[in-house]
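wait is this the right file?? whatever heres the structure
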């Protein structure tokens, strides 16, 4: 089992959810460190942002709270489903620690690996061998 990328979804003031389809933002996260790296819009024409457009807070360089526990929770959750090839997990970071919201089973060609700068064909060549 391996973690191929971590994203933090960040909401906007005018919406109730952090979904990028309604203006939510994404921030890449260092897979080993939990360090917030690059904030950007999540739309088709992704734009890098120096700070959150509503609050003015620069998130780059901050460390995601409970990061090690969140990674361990993700690995433990996936271990409950042997034979699963790939999944994306939505994990909330609460004041008590991380909690799994949902597990998304996706085709590697459709998951958000482009947000990590790692095209699915390179990450999962076994899935694309017969394409």
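ok assuming it is, sequence goes like this
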């Amino acid at each position: 089992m391996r973690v191929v990328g971590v994203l933090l979804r960040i909401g906007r003031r005018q919406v109730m959810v952090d979904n990028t389809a309604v203006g939510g933002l994404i921030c890449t996260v260092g897979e080993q460190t939990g360090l917030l790296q690059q904030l950007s819009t999540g739309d088709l024409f992704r734009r890098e942002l120096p700070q959150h457009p509503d609050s003015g807070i620069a998130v780059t360089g901050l460390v995601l709270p409970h990061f090690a526990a969140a990674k361990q929770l993700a690995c433990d959750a996936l271990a409950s489903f042997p034979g699963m090839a790939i999944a994306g997990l939505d994990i909330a970071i609460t004041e008590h620690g991380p909690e799994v919201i949902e597990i998304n089973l996706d085709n590697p060609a459709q998951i958000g690996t482009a947000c990590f700068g790692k095209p699915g064909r390179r990450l999962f060549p076994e899935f694309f061998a017969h394409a």
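The mean pLDDT is 82. so i think its the right one actually
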